[in-house]
Amino acid sequence: MFVLSEDSERTSGEDAQAANIDAGKAVAESVRTTLGPRGMDKMLVSDSGDVVITNDGATILEEMDIDHPAAKMLVEVAESQAEDVGDGTTTAVTLAGELLSQFEQLLEDDIHPTTVVQGYKQAERAAVEAVDDTVVDGEIDEETLTEIVTTAMTGKGTGGVTPESLAGDIVDAVQRVETEAGVDRDAISIATQPGSSAGATELIEGVIAEESAARDDSPRSLTDASVGVLDADLDQAEPDVDAEWQVSSREQLDEALQAERERLEEFTQAVLDLDVDALFVTGDVNEQVAAALTREDVLVFDSVDSDTARSVAKATGAAQIGDLDDFEADDFGAADSVRIESFDDDLVFVEGGDATETVTLFVRGGTGHVTDELERAIRDGVDAATEAADTGEIVPGAGATELAVAAALREEAASVEGREQLAVEAFADALDVIPRTLAQNAGQDPIDALVDLRSANETGRAGLVQTGEDTEVVDPVGEGVVDPASVKREAIRSATEAATMLARIDDVISAE
Ligand code: ADP
Ligand code: MG
């Protein structure tokens, strides 16, 4: 009996499994060489010739245009890791690939896929718990946050400046938006602008928006400005705005124009009476009103994007008002400075000063490629610091955590009954891929490195730490190489999820 159309393709059983495993491993292999401080970058060229140069696992996979269904699941590992915790995408995908390799081996040894899945699940739970035992004691202070940021950015393209020199601004940004409830990650924006060296990257205590003033002759820079945000048009006085004029003579026309002028003047006066220095209007602004306000040195922005209006309000403490008549003194915000700078487009910088609830990292770099990659590195730094500050938990980097978790799993495996035990051991072996890859990327022999690392971990805490040009087996914490615990836990979870999902598939039916 045929239930499938002639065009559909079907692979089943071991063939399907083998094909899926190969596809997943190939994806992992493609990002593995970027892992760690000595990881290499990839250059990706799109159909249309656009070039992206990056070290970021999620970006590589996003740009790769992968369409094998199993391979796509590994791409999703990177996506979910990026979404949940930001950093650790390459770790997650590399681990998922290695879990698949181990799975392949277990199949060859005639272990049933269901057994492997159960064993992997058990190992995942134990591994996530074992991360707890690696958490470094102590408060997360400014120094630890700086270490977290530096670790997250090491090995990324930072346009010739060191991660250390950028870490200060990033840590400031995170601390600036930290409240009792945690770090308001959404309150940290990143704006990029090529055309200057990466060293010119700075933290703006407020917002940067692509907006130009309503008029060319507007003031371009204000200090200690009172700021209004109006979510309406600024072109008609309420309420008798729609008065119609029956014009039948020259005099009547003059009269009508005069009345209109007066009406707008009154309206302008009403705005001036509010004593506002900068006005962000989401709607239209009447030309005559704009000209009159500009003469009085009011900086007016019209057709302001609604997101910009919201962030200006957040940066200055202004309320977003829907009707000019409703403005009251305390609806205005305050800015230390409002200034327009011209790049390819005009950018307005609104710096709220001490009261600001939102900050922007203004990322500079020589070229677009440099700024784009620097932005990704900075994003990793911000995300990692946010996770560390929010959870208060950091773990040693440089492969030390993976080694410790693997050791814990090997111990745990002894108490696991049945063939699942083999899967738990395989999971532990899979974790070794992180220190092994760090070694390989640093040009060391992975087997020798693993042997050294394991014996060092017998007596203490050790990772394969890169300091300057040297790669040494030392305690990563002592060298300031630390990662957020949540990044490690999430990498274990998302990698296991993808690997076990792929492991369960023994039939691929694709409609053509
Ligand atoms: P991911 O996308 O997984 O974050 P990265 O390329 O950022 O991949 O590499 C992260 C790994 O590099 C982590 O295990 C981290 O501890 C390690 N790492 C960062 N800095 C150093 C260093 N100086 N020495 C050794 N390992 C480091
Ligand atoms: Mg990273």
Question: How would you describe this structure to a colleague?
Answer:
- By secondary structure, the chain is α+β, with helices and mostly antiparallel strands.
- It has three domains: 244 residues, GroEL-like equatorial domain (GROEL, domain 1), CATH 1.10.560.10; 94 residues, GROEL, domain 2 (2-Layer Sandwich), CATH 3.30.260; 149 residues, GroEL.
- The chain is built from 16 helices and 20 strands.
- Helix 1 packs antiparallel against helix 4, helix 3 packs across helix 4 and helix 3 runs antiparallel to helix 16.
- It starts with 8 loop residues before the first strand and ends with a strand.
- The mean pLDDT is 90.
- The site of magnesium ion (MG) has 4 residues, from loops.
Largest sheet, if any?
7 strands, mixed
Per DSSP E runs of 2 or more residues, the count of β-strands stands at 20
CATH topology of the largest domain: GROEL, domain 1
- Say which CATH homologous superfamily of the largest domain is assigned: GroEL-like equatorial domain
Helix content: 40-55%
Euclidean distance between termini CA atoms: 20 Å
CATH architecture of the largest domain: Orthogonal Bundle
How many helices does DSSP assign? 16
Q: What's a concise summary of this model?
A:
The protein has helices at about 15-30, 55-65, 70-85, 90-110, 115-135, 140-155, 165-175, 250-275, 285-295, 305-315, 370-390, 400-415, 420-430, 435-440, 445-460, 485-505, and strands at about 10, 40-45, 50-55, 180, 180-185, 190-195, 200-205, 205-210, 220-230, 280, 300, 320, 335-340, 345-350, 360-365, 395, 465, 470-475, 480-485, 505-510.
